[in-house]
Design goal:
single chain, mainly alpha
């Protein structure tokens, strides 16, 4: 589910980057992503057991806090997309799993072994390799929004884990998209502008991809600890490289390829370690034969 989320997020980012070339602003991206993603969420809810009953909540104020944090986070993400090339903007977001692992240890008290810490460190080194400029540096404004988005995204990840025990994944995603639509609609009169039909098509596609990504991401957090699934977010850098090359005529550099290799190795090793740990727990929990 996390791999599927990474793929959908990559598609969404590429489409929004293309839309930004026509002057689409971050608040516009927020509205259209939520507006076109909400039908995807509702369709998914209707096909699940329980239907619309899954949207009920026991903790409405927790959804308000999660939505507020998520909206600020995603605005920073979209602003970074408007300021930086796709690969740079995506790469900066990969400090989020590092923050998420740290916060899961400090706030949720999840066990994070030394080998997983080492894997996260390798992934971070990979991010540094990818972001090393060939001649110029990353603009300070873009860097600031990118790091702020990463930290806020890590906070969202932690809130999702705290909601999982009482809230259905459908409710978590639905109320976030609803809140995003409302906030985006309020901001739209101040920042909205006319765009070509092709640009609106890009925004619609990004909204659908974003809706699917949100469902996959939230569901993954209900199936495994943050430290296990977060490294798979690194796969988005592969999508950024591919889409940047194919759609924006920006081929990857050798440093990008080297960093992507480190990032992929980090995620795969973390998954393998979790498999080994679960197998060991099952062996220990199995009673000896009589």
């Amino acid at each position: 589910m996390r791999v599927a989320a990474a793929g959908c997020f990559s598609i969404m980012a590429a489409l929004l980057k293309l839309a930004s070339l026509d002057g689409v602003t971050a608040p516009e991206m927020l509205f259209h992503r939520a507006f076109f993603g909400l039908p995807v969420v509702l369709l998914w809810v209707m096909t699940r057991q329980g239907g619309l009953k899954a949207l009920s909540t026991r903790r409405p104020w927790a959804h308000v806090g999660r939505s507020a944090l998520g909206i600020v986070s995603i605005l920073c993400v979209f602003q970074t997309l408007t300021l930086l090339p796709l690969a740079d903007a995506t790469t900066l977001s990969f400090t989020a799993p590092i923050f998420a692992t740290l916060l899961s240890f400090l706030i949720l008290k999840e066990a994070v072994g030394p080998r997983r810490w080492a894997a996260v460190a390798v992934g971070f080194v990979g991010v540094l390799v990818v972001t090393r400029p060939g001649g110029g540096g990353v603009p300070l404004e873009g860097l600031g929004f990118g790091l702020a988005a990463a930290l806020l995204t890590a906070g969202v990840t932690i809130t999702l884990r705290q909601l999982r025990d009482t809230e259905h994944v459908a409710a978590i995603v639905f109320w976030f998209f609803t809140a995003s639509s409302i906030v985006g609609a309020v901001l739209l009169p101040f920042v909205g502008q006319a765009h070509a039909p092709a640009t609106f098509a890009l925004l619609a596609g990004a909204g659908v991809a974003g809706g699917l990504a949100q469902l996959f991401m939230t569901a993954s957090l209900q199936s495994a600890p943050v430290a296990v699934v977060a490294p798979f977010d690194y796969l988005q850098i592969v999508g950024a490289v591919v889409f940047g090359w194919l759609l924006l005529n920006s081929p990857p550099s050798l440093s990008t390829l080297a960093g992507a290799g480190l990032i992929g190795a980090s995620g795969l090793y973390t998954a393998w370690r979790e498999h080994v740990r679960r197998r060991q727990r099952l062996i220990q929990a199995t009673p000896p034969p009589v």
